[in-house]
């Protein structure tokens, strides 16, 4: 794939730029020297009668290579070893014998008793293509500092990171064993955040998070190919294939949609119906679809097919929680919805009673069954969007009332492996419900009832000693713009080792920011910001070693 170039390439970039670097007799006496030529600092070596020139700074961490060691290799190459980390470079090609960053090598010639060096830079397109190749290698090794360096080199060559992301999506979509992950979803939000920043370091940090997370999720994974056949695109057939968890059939239909050049917008109604056909995989199916729309819009039609196939696979493997005993009240609630889908599609989402008329007490600290019943009870007289505002407020209040001792405990049963992400998902899923159901209004009943299940499930893990009013007052955010700035600073310097955690911090904050920008009642906006405030001041526990051991012993003791 050709990188997207910003600067133009001029004929001057193909003309050698020879500089008189050092007298040959001086180099012969010392065997090595450092010179400046054409704005570059070069190390020049004389080894076994041959002259070599390279960047003096090691591409790893900048140690001066003139201090390195030269030796001949069994294959006849001259190898330069950087003593700082023992990296070894072939001085003929610049190849790193440890597989890391390559070393820039410069052509040399001897003329009139002097060593001349051609310091001309390769054309930007060549430099960008090389950086893309090296980025692949860095991702394959999950070498995060090198990923950052290669992205910086790509930027220096004038190529946008989107060029690398299109390539990474195409390369990774078959290596995500169970389909789309948070790496793709977070990539969309990281790139949107990057768009708002001007500081070069912060912009590179955003891009690095994108590719490092994707590298982690595909590390050492083989390819799991998709069905390459085409079958005529048909919305109903696609939904039937997904319901049957028939990836091959659904992929063949998507392949035909790609062949026909159907846009994401044209496919979105069927995709949305498939995503909300079940309360799937903790809301991921709809959440991922929301982020997919942003990625396709950013990366273009060339990325749409692999993105959709990756999302499809995650949908096929998605667990269907509405079939679990805890959520079996969902199907009867959906059947009891008092407004026909055709009427929902025809009416504006905001018509009906305002959110203030929806009693928060009906949704807060209620069971799944009670919350579902409360939603159905107001559906005939209250606009879907107003019900949504009330549910989002309840989801936010639940987060600020979460009893974090549940997350910290080591003796939890498996069913109570509940943590902060359970509560953030209610908010991010709720935002996805609004975006997708405003595009496909007939899906409001599914979206609202599934959001109600999130709210009801989380109500079992609230701190009984903390009231809603006290929690809202404690975590209130008086200055929205200043708070957003603090959140950005936090996610850019999160210090968290597990990529999924900063991804959730970022996505939760972005969902709240975007939800408020779309328009919500003041009480909902205040609760949502308070929820993010508490989340961002929490120490997220990254691993549960004692809990894993406790649960393993309990399971093994009972399995016979």
Question: Quick recap of the structure?
Answer:
53% of the residues lie in helices and 9% in strands.
Layout: helices, strands, pairs:
Elements: E1 18-23, H1 24-30, E2 32-37, E3 40-47, E4 50-55, E5 69-72, E6 78-82, E7 87-90, E8 105-106, E9 108-111, E10 114-118, H2 124-140, H3 144-156, H4 161-172, H5 182-195, H6 200-217, H7 235-243, H8 247-259, H9 264-275, H10 284-299, H11 301-317, H12 330-335, H13 341-346, H14 368-379, H15 384-400, H16 405-408, H17 420-439, H18 444-458, H19 468-474, H20 480-492, H21 500-518, H22 522-536, H23 545-558
Antiparallel strand pairs: 1-10, 2-3, 3-4, 4-8, 5-6, 6-7, 9-10
Structural features, described:
The protein has 560 residues and is of the alpha+beta class. Among the domains are: 17-118, Rieske Iron-sulfur Protein; 124-217; 235-319. Helix content is 53%, strand content 9%. The protein contains 23 helices and ten strands. It has helices at residues 24-30, 124-140, 144-156, 161-172, 182-195, 200-217, 235-243, 247-259, 264-275, 284-299, 301-317, 330-335, 341-346, 368-379, 384-400, 405-408, 420-439, 444-458, 468-474, 480-492, 500-518, 522-536, 545-558, and strands at 18-23, 32-37, 40-47, 50-55, 69-72, 78-82, 87-90, 105-106, 108-111, 114-118. The protein has a four-stranded antiparallel sheet with strand order 2-3-4-8, with helices on one face. A hairpin with a 2-residue loop joins strand 9 and strand 10. Helix 3 (144-156) crosses helix 6 (200-217). It starts with 17 loop residues before the first strand and ends with a helix.
């Amino acid at each position: 794939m050709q990188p997207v170039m910003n600067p133009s390439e001029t004929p001057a970039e193909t003309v050698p730029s020879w500089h008189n670097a050092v007298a040959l007799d001086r180099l012969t006496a010392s065997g090595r020297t450092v010179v400046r030529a054409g704005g570059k600092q070069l190390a020049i070596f004389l080894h076994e009668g041959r002259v070599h020139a390279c960047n003096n700074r090691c591409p790893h961490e900048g140690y001066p290579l003139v201090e390195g060691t030269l030796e001949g290799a069994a294959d006849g190459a001259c190898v330069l070893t950087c003593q700082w980390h023992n990296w070894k470079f072939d001085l003929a090609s610049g190849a790193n014998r440890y597989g890391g960053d390559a070393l820039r090598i410069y052509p040399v010639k001897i003329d009139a008793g002097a060593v001349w060096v051609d310091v001309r830079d390769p054309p930007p397109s060549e430099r960008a293509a090389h950086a893309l190749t090296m980025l692949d290698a860095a991702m394959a090794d999950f070498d995060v500092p090198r990923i950052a360096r290669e992205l910086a080199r790509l930027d220096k060559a004038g190529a946008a990171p989107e060029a690398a992301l299109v390539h990474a999506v195409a390369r990774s979509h078959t290596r995500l064993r169970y389909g789309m992950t948070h790496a793709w979803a977070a990539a969309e939000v990281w790139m949107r955040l990057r768009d708002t920043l001007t500081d070069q370091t912060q912009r590179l940090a955003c891009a690095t998070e994108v590719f490092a997370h994707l590298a982690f999720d595909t590390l050492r994974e083989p390819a799991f190919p998709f069905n390459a056949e085409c079958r005529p695109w048909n919305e109903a057939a696609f939904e039937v294939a997904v319901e049957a968890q028939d990836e091959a059939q659904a992929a063949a239909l998507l392949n035909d949609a790609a062949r026909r050049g159907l846009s994401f917008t044209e496919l979105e109604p069927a995709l949305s119906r498939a995503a909300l056909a079940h309360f799937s995989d903790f809301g991921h199916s709809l959440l991922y679809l929301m982020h997919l729309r942003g990625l396709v819009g950013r990366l273009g039609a060339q990325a749409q097919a692999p993105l959709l196939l990756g999302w499809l696979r995650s949908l096929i493997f998605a667990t269907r929680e509405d079939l679990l005993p805890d959520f079996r009240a969902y199907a009867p609630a959906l059947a009891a919805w008092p407004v026909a889908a055709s009427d929902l599609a025809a009416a504006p989402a905001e018509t009906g009673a305002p959110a203030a008329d929806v009693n928060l007490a009906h949704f807060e600290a209620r069971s799944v069954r009670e919350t579902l019943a409360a939603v159905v009870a107001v559906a005939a007289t209250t606009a879907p969007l107003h019900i949504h505002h009330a549910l989002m407020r309840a989801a936010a209040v639940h987060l600020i009332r979460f009893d974090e001792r549940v997350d910290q405990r080591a003796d939890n049963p498996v069913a109570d492996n509940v943590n902060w992400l359970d509560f953030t998902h209610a908010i991010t899923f709720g935002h996805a419900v609004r975006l997708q159901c405003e595009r496909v209004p007939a899906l409001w009943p599914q979206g609202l009832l599934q959001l109600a299940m999130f709210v009801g499930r989380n109500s079992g893990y609230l701190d009984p000693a903390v009231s809603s009013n006290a929690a809202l007052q404690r975590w209130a955010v008086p200055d929205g713009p200043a708070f957003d700035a603090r959140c950005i600073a936090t996610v850019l310097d999160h210090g968290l080792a597990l990529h999924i955690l900063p991804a959730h911090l970022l996505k939760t904050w972005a969902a709240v920011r975007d939800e408020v920008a779309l328009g919500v009642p003041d009480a909902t906006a205040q609760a949502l910001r308070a929820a993010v405030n508490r989340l961002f001041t929490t120490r997220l526990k990254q691993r549960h070693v004692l809990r894993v051991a406790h649960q393993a012993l309990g399971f093994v003791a009972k399995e016979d």
